[in-house]
Amino acid sequence: MDSDIALNDLRGERHHDESYDLHNGLRRRVRANSEAPREFSLPEADGGRDAWLFLAGCFMVEALIWGFPFSFGVFQDYYLTHEPFASKPSGIAIIGTSSTGIMYLSCPILFAAFKRWPTIRRSFTLVGLVINATAIIAASFATTVSHLVLTQGILYAVGGVMVYCPTIIFLDEWFIRRKGLAFGMMWAGTGVSGVVLPFIMSALLDKFGFRTTFRAYAVALALLATPLLFFIRPRLPLAQTSLHRRLDMSFLRMSTFWIPQMCNIIQGLGYFIPNIYLPTYARSQGMSGAQATVMLALVNLGVVFGAIWAGALTDRMHVSSVMGICSTGAALAVFLFWGLSVSVPMLCLFSLLYGLTAGGFSANYTGIVQGVRDRDTAVDSGMVFGFLAAGRGIGAVVSGPLSEALLHMQTWKGEAKLGYGTGYGLLIVFTGITAVAGSGSWFARRVGWV
Asked: Nearest CA to 268 among 445, 96, 438?
């Protein structure tokens, strides 16, 4: 991230009484008063019309880009029951996890590129949107699962990360004191979309099939997202000296980074499993397609509030404590409400509680970044965030084939009771264990490792 972005010191310094003289590429703070008038005025941070319009644009773009892969459970349920995919279903789970996983994994590469060539950031959002729409249209012509992996999975992810990464960089400039809350509100866009989109997609798939549904969504994505890109813009001007700075990767040697990162990776291995399998699990218990869609929507509804409350807490509490709260709540939801349920009310309760707790985990990233920068203010916050996102991506990519293998084993089917005896028991236990591991940073802080 550019040297000017380092002005966003994550400590909430006031900007309205300062101006920034960037003459000859030097970053100098000049106190604004009657004797030394401002050379120019920066838009207000943490509030004001421009900041809130920017955040609203981020929210909508997040909803449109991430809502599609996070609604994959509906598509998986359709692919497993309709040709030309039902007869050869192997690899269907990989479609969804490759899409989210590659978007996460690509973040460090994009952040490094934007630091080296910052002038390309805004143009990448438009190019990425074009790739997204192209990928969805291409998926509408698929005849095999591998075609869907390449289009709905990989190609869509390439476009999505090109849109997503610039918004992260710009949001870091627009919000300082309320950074955690702002990121939480942006990420809540995925949850809102995940509440609405499964019902829309399920209805369209049932009536028109996947080909027409994909083409209609591609057109809607282009029409709705393109005007929003006008509001996705940087707050700070580029300084000439920021264009060729060396990347500072010293955070890779800090336990303050690695311990939360390991928790993040392990938690990510199980985090995506309910999103992928809840609709098919509900169907296996004799529930209707509409009820199966409700389960997925409730997870995403929980994510809306989970992302906001967890983001707000990171502005007030140590991030390890917030990670512990999210992880403990998610583990209890999995072991008690998914593992012990085969009825609609219990499964609905699980879905909502899981989204509310596990869905807030990513909102801790801003707190992790702040913890790293407290050790070394020269560290680039964008690169730290990029590596955290990549850690989540490892979990997303691995969880696809891993979850298929676990489900194929049919462990405890007919032997254990309730959800644990449905054939999904091993998936439930694995998801719960990975959720518990997400609280590792809390224990590490108690012994002085973080």
From this structure: 438
Q: 48 Cβ partners below 8 Å, 6+ apart? A: none
Do residues 357 and 306 lie in contact, with contact meaning Cβ atoms separated by under 8 Å?
yes
Sign of CA dihedral 314, 193, 101, 119: negative
**CA–CA distance, 351 with 328 (Å, rounded to integer):** 15
Query: Structure tokens of 199?
Result: 């019902």
Name the residue type at position 272. Answer: F
Return the number of other C-beta atoms located less than 10 Å from residue 127's C-beta: 13
What tokens appear for 277 in the block?
């399998």
- What does DSSP assign to residue 338? I
Task: Quick: pLDDT tens for 28-58.
Answer: 333 334 344 445 578 888 888 899 999 999 9
- Amino acid of residue 63: A
Reply yes or no: is the peptide bond before residue 84 cis, omega within 30 of 0: yes
What DSSP string describes 266-280?
Answer: HHHHHHTHHHHHHHH
- CB of 277 closer than 8 Å to CB of 427: yes
Phi, psi of 52, deg, nearest 5: -75, -35
C-alpha torsion sign, points 33, 39, 40, 45: negative
CA distances, 378 to each of 220, 340, 381 (Å): 42, 49, 9
**Euclidean distance between CA atoms 158 and 292, whole angstroms:** 29
3-state secondary structure of 28: strand
pLDDT in tens, 395-407: 888 888 898 899 8
| Residue in 59, 47, 111, 110 with CA at minimum distance from that of residue 228 | 59
Mapping DSSP to helix (H, G, I), strand (E, B) and coil, where does residue 427 land? helix
Query: Do 45 and 51 meet the contact criterion of CB atoms below 8 Å apart?
Result: yes
pLDDT digits (tens, 9 = 90+) for 120-144: 999 999 999 999 999 999 999 999 9
Write down the residue that tokens 């075609």 correspond to.
147
pTM: 0.79
d(CA 12, CA 366): 13
How far are the Cα atoms of 110, 165, 427 from residue 120, in angstroms, in the given order?
11, 12, 42
DSSP state, residue 61: H
Residue 276 half-sphere exposure, CB side, CA atoms within 13 Å?
28
Q: Answer whether 419's CB lies under 8 Å from 428's CB.
A: yes
Contact 80, 92 (CB under 8 A): yes
Q: Are 4 and 235 in contact (CB under 8 A)?
A: no
b/e for 318-351, b at 16 or more Cβ within 10 A?
Answer: bbbbbbbbbbbbbbbbbbebbbebbebebbbbbb
Q: Which residue type occupies 117?
A: W
